[in-house]
Amino acid sequence: MGDNRKKKKFYFRKRRNKYFLEPGFRGFFCTCNFREKDCVKEMYNLLNEYAGKLYPDGEEVNRPPSVEPEERSETESDNETDIGDMLKHEVDSLKRDSQKALKHKRFQVVETGASNCIFIKTNLPSPEELTTAIIKDLCATKVQKTRHVLRLLPIMATCKANLPDIMESAEKLIDKYFLKKPSTFAVIFNKRFNSSASRDLIIKELADLIVLKNGENKADLKNPSLCIIVEIIKGICLLSVVDNYYLFKKYNINEICKEQDGNNDTEASQAKKFKSDVPQNEEQKTDQ
Prior knowledge:
THUMP domain-containing protein 1, disordered C terminus, globular
């Protein structure tokens, strides 16, 4: 009886310590082939490696405002002054400890409720910046740094998987990427464990909104400049806007790192120069 109680307590404690995918997150979505724990370890290593290069001093994080001591009157006792100094010293010490542990707090895996689907929450303001740095470097070097990670996509927003919330969250991204400068576009839609979200309706509404924002925006399913990523997992929708989606092998980092020959070598050299106007003529392999 006692052993069963201990097991139940341990189970509930583990449940409480888990984080779950929710609206309002930013982060990274990746897929794998069953080795989820190994995939998470690889993702932590990969993200921390490139975050250390891009943000060596942690300048991307919104640090808490410094605590300034209030002005004291001449009647304050020495004891109160000592307490104030001790408090300031403690705050400074906590800040130093926080900065030392910064790289461990940048990323946190959360439960998605779907097998082979990993979401890593971040406090970085622009996960797309870090993802782009990783993808471009892998395209240039062809160095295989992961074994279990398949796709790696930045996620700029998460919301509930219903049409009004999706459109509200997507409109902010559309204003940023499609309002001022016209572009060709495509909507990449995937859903898992969800029967209520209509693929055709969501794609149509997003495409109509993009054209409404700027009449020169044009749909292009073969070689779009920008792709709107819509990944629905159960009741949560993940949204992002990425460029060079087909050039970068649908952000499948295993495919990116494969040795290429013939026409693909030309494509790889163009990717190395980070050009966005390279035509994609070859049929892409599916990554799921």
